[in-house]
Design a protein that fits this description.
The protein is of the alpha+beta class. Helix content is 47%, strand content 14%. The protein starts with a helix and ends in a 14-residue tail after the last helix.
Length: 102
């Protein structure tokens, strides 16, 4: 997703530059690192100057994904949803259920 986000931001800037008659800038990808959750209380983080795993990495993964959400209300709702599911070990929250068709 990171390349698409960076390309989208540059596209917006280049469209404005084009409307002003200025030359467009080429896309240059900036690697911000990788993160993945690999289980309950476990994740891995691989950034330019930092590499770590375990509970702290899992916490960092959650924090960054919460902050990426648009709007304070959405962040609070997702935070409480995650907290509820964490406390209750709610595995149903991870199921994808298709509606029944007759």
């Amino acid at each position: 997703a990171q390349p698409a986000i960076q390309q989208g931001k540059l596209l917006g800037k280049n469209l404005l530059r084009s409307l002003k008659g200025k030359a467009m800038k080429p896309f240059v990808y900036k690697d911000k690192g990788s993160m993945a959750t690999i289980g309950r209380n476990k994740a891995v983080v691989d950034m330019k100057h930092f590499k770590f795993s375990g509970f702290f990495a899992w916490f960092v993964w959650m924090f960054i994904h919460l902050m990426a959400l648009v709007g304070f209300r959405n962040r609070v709702i997702v935070f409480f949803n995650w907290t509820y599911n964490y406390i209750n070990f709610d595995k149903a929250a991870r199921l994808i259920i298709r509606p029944f068709k007759k």
